[in-house]
């Protein structure tokens, strides 16, 4: 039986963990949030009290935390990387800057491990369904050994080369579209309601017409809810869109649309909405229009 560990059992990690368990892989997991560990245990996983305990003696570890800092804290300084079996494979699925992915990979190689730089896309829906898109780079041997994990959580795995940072680059560039489309969806819904459109009818028309996007189809219904379930926070998108801007600066490319979207996300954060579902970015526009998009 294949054995592995997972570090990070949030909205994405829980769904990924359930699909890994359903594939018959014995899985030990850790999250700082005790209720997340309890949910993981209910699904059949083995909860651990630390990242190091989850990784102890394992040949495979999947890291699905929010930031590069969290990934480094989980892996290093008496963390998971110290506890893994020699020559283990770490699958880093967090969205991080390309340079962060390269630095983490270099540290793991120094410790005798391999890393797949393997961020994912598809949201909580894809994580729950096991239909994520994986954008991965790393050694062929790491791909081969991580194949059971990748197959369990995804519908498509893009092998982008051997160099760490390539997977992160593709994911960060992808987040340009995701972030801009999120803010565009909020702007569209707020404008429509202020101008006299019925929110539900507007959603139906746009979602079946040329102006539709995956983000609009997924987020607009939540914008029409007063208290949507939190599946991805505004803080996460602020972080991701910030990474897009950093990547653009490093490449010498101006990104005016991304800058505009980031400014709106920053406004949402300043309004105290950072921990809210990212669809709450529509509240920035509601504050301007005085007309709520959501049903009362």
Automatic annotation (TrEMBL):
Keyword Methyltransferase: no
Protein keywords: NAD, Oxidoreductase
Residues at the active site: 171
GO biological process: organic acid catabolic process
Domain of life: Bacteria
Stored PROSITE patterns: 3_HYDROXYISOBUT_DH
Domain 6-phosphogluconate dehydrogenase NADP-binding: 5-161
All copies of domain 3-hydroxyisobutyrate dehydrogenase-like NAD-binding, residue ranges: 165-285
GO molecular function: NAD binding; NADP binding; oxidoreductase activity
Pfam families linked: NAD_binding_11 (PF14833), NAD_binding_2 (PF03446)
PANTHER family reported for this sequence: 3-HYDROXYISOBUTYRATE DEHYDROGENASE-LIKE 1, MITOCHONDRIAL-RELATED (PTHR43060)
Protein name: 6-phosphogluconate dehydrogenase
